[in-house]
Amino acid sequence: MPRGRHLTLQTGSIQRVTLRLFNSLGRRVEDFTPATDGVVRLYSCGPTVYSYAHIGNLRAYTFADTLRRALLWKGLRVEHVINITDVGHAVAEAELGEDKLEVAAARERRSVEEIAAMYTEAFFTDLASLNILPAHHYPRATQYVEQMIAFAERLVERGFTYEIESGLYFDTSKDPTYGQLGLIDVSGQLEGARVEEVPGRQAKTDFALWRAEAPGQLRAMRWNSPWGWGAPGWHLECSVMSMLLLGEHFDIHTGGVDHRQLHHVNEIAQSEAYLGDGQPWVKFWLHNEFLQLGSAKISKSSGHILTVSDLAKQGFHPLAYRLFLLGGHYRAQLEFTLAGLDSAQSTLRRLVRRTSALGELPLVTTADEARAAAGDDAAAVAVIDQIDDAISADLNTPRVLALLQDSLRDQTLSEAGQRAVVAACAAVLGLPFGQLTPADLEQASDLPEVDEAAVEQLVADREAARVARDWARADALRAELTELGIQVTDTADGPTWTRLG
Ligand SMILES: [Zn+2]
Predict the structure, then answer these.
(1) What is the pLDDT of residue 177?
(2) What tens digit of pLDDT does each residue of 116-152 get?
(3) Worst-scoring range by mean pLDDT, 351-355, 357-361, 414-418, 458-462?
(4) What span, in angstroms and rounded, lies between the C-alpha atoms of 309 and 321?
(5) What distance in Å separates the CA atoms of residue 363 and residue 373, rounded to the nearest whole number?
(6) Least crowded by CB within 10 Å, which of 58, 124, 434, 479?
(7) What's the half-sphere exposure (Cβ side, CA atoms, 13 Å) at 206?
(8) pLDDT at 324 over 70
């Protein structure tokens, strides 16, 4: 079947607008064309299960879910894989150093397997609470080590590797296109970056395919390989599991923007070296931006973790957080504030009140189903066309939310038309109107107002006192904040604060 540039016919229906997505590879918006059989094969980098997912991590899965719903909306089928990294790798950019799963196991006095199982379950609970469609496969890295070794052996045969004391490394100098995705200028870009010294490594961009045990070291999770006892490199996991489950080439790879510079660059290098067919391994790379907490980036390594259940303890429904995320475009940095979340919760409450008054909603997944549900209400069909335009324009969810709010106020729409519009928005936004009731949101009580500017000032004053080593004043300011129900946490990136439950 010839591959046209536009989606024209899918299952007999006309696609009025082509889905356009921002491809990190080339950094431009492009028409998305799926593989020949109408099944989009989608891979999203999953969590390393050594702690709870913080709300910033969950932005990546909410984004992948929005993408998946947009594909379904366009009448495509989707095969989705999210991996579970249950082999502890060190911090993302480090090849050496402590294994995070082992550190967690020691801290919590459990085995590494228990730690991985516990946090994997917690991850699934978080996904369900955010109404994220379950992936079709959640491959565990520990189940694929044999295949990872075979993959690395082929790279050895093809001359892309060298072995040093700390393991088997990918030789990036053998890959003339290395770093394209990250726009990395190999000669200079990494010089100033935080890259650890690895004795014997030939270039800072070279990365471990196999991490060998240091003499005398005995990992809790260890496998034998042609390069000695040890564990696979982190990047290797995703290449191997995605190819095994989705085929050697697949349609879309997603992840947080932090993966664009290193993890995904390395995945591409080793996969294209492995395949050696001169074709791009994956055509579309999509990345969501960070969630910012105050001025500090939320990351697991900063030691400050804010989870969905923390938010629930503070009276916020998880879907209010989903709505908060959808209120920003996935490629825009989003500043997380409790005031912002509060306002998202008020919006959700209002939407649920209005939509549940409409009675039972039609079952809608695709644009065509939504148009059919609107029947002969031309105004409603026009709104559904606008929803289609918005979601097809690189997933413009803020616009879809605005259309939903407008149409609920629109007196010219019939009740059936309004129901069709709400069902369409529920489908693309993943907010289950029709199932959510006002009572679901009642438990999520409103918090007393907090003057964020005043809190920021107190936090800044306390930080200034700490810098000046005026501990008495710093303690007094902390006490004042505690009285206001604010908890301050000092991180490597500066202080952050949250409201106590
Ligand atoms: Zn990955």
Answers:
(1) 87
(2) 899 999 999 999 999 999 999 999 999 999 999 999 9
(3) 458-462
(4) 11
(5) 9
(6) 479
(7) 22
(8) yes
Q: How far is the CA of 77 from the centre of ligand 1 (A)?
A: 23
- Asked if 172 and 202 count as a contact pair (C-beta separation under 8 A), the reply is no
For the chain, the domains span 38-288, 316-442, 452-499
Query: What average pLDDT does this structure show over 336-363?
Result: 93
Tell me whether residue 141 is exposed, middle or buried, using C-beta atoms within 10 angstroms of its C-beta: 0 to 12, 13 to 18, 19 or more.
buried
Question: Under a CB-based contact definition with an 8 Å cutoff, are residues 101 and 209 in contact?
Answer: no
Collapse the DSSP code of 320 into the 3-class scheme (helix H, G, I; strand E, B; otherwise coil) and give the result. helix
pLDDT of 195: 62
Say what the pLDDT of residue 2 is: 39
Q: Determine the distance separating the centroid of ligand 1 and the alpha carbon of 181, expressed in angstroms.
A: 14
Q: How many CB atoms lie within 10 A of CB 466?
A: 17
CA quadruple 225, 231, 235, 237: dihedral, nearest 10: 80
User: What are 191-228's pLDDT values in tens digits?
Assistant: 445 566 788 899 989 999 999 988 777 777 889 999 99
Strands (E), 98-146: none
pLDDT at 56: 92
Span from the CA of 247 to the centroid of ligand 1 (angstroms)? 16
Helices (H), 329-470: 338-356, 367-374, 378-392, 397-409, 415-429, 438-442, 452-467
**Measured between alpha carbons, how far is 397 from 344 in angstroms, rounded to an integer?**
14
Closest-CA residue to 291 (of 340, 232, 244, 220): 340
Residue 264 CA to ligand 1 centre (angstroms): 7
If you measure from the C-alpha of residue 240 to the centroid of ligand 1, how many angstroms do you get, rounded to a whole number? 10
Name every residue whose Cβ is closer than 8 Å to that of residue 142 and which is 6 or more positions away in sequence: 86, 87, 116, 221
Instruction: Report CA(36)–ligand 1 centroid distance (Å).
Output: 25
C-alpha dihedral over 379, 381, 383, 386, to 10 degrees?
-140
- List residues bridging with 39 in a β-sheet: 77
**Ligand 1 mean position to 306 CA, how many Å?**
23
Nearest to 83 by CA among 221, 232, 296, 215: 232
38-288: CATH topology is Rossmann fold (3.40.50)
289 SS3 class: coil
Q: Rounded to the nearest whole angstrom, what is the distance from the C-alpha of residue 271 to the centroid of ligand 1? A: 12
Q: What CA–CA distance (Å, rounded) separates 317 from 53?
A: 17
What is the C-alpha separation between 55 and 95, in angstroms, rounded?
26
Residue 70 has pLDDT above 90, yes or no: yes
8-state DSSP, 402: H
486 Cα to the center of ligand 1, angstroms = 36
| Alpha-carbon 278 to chain mean position | 29
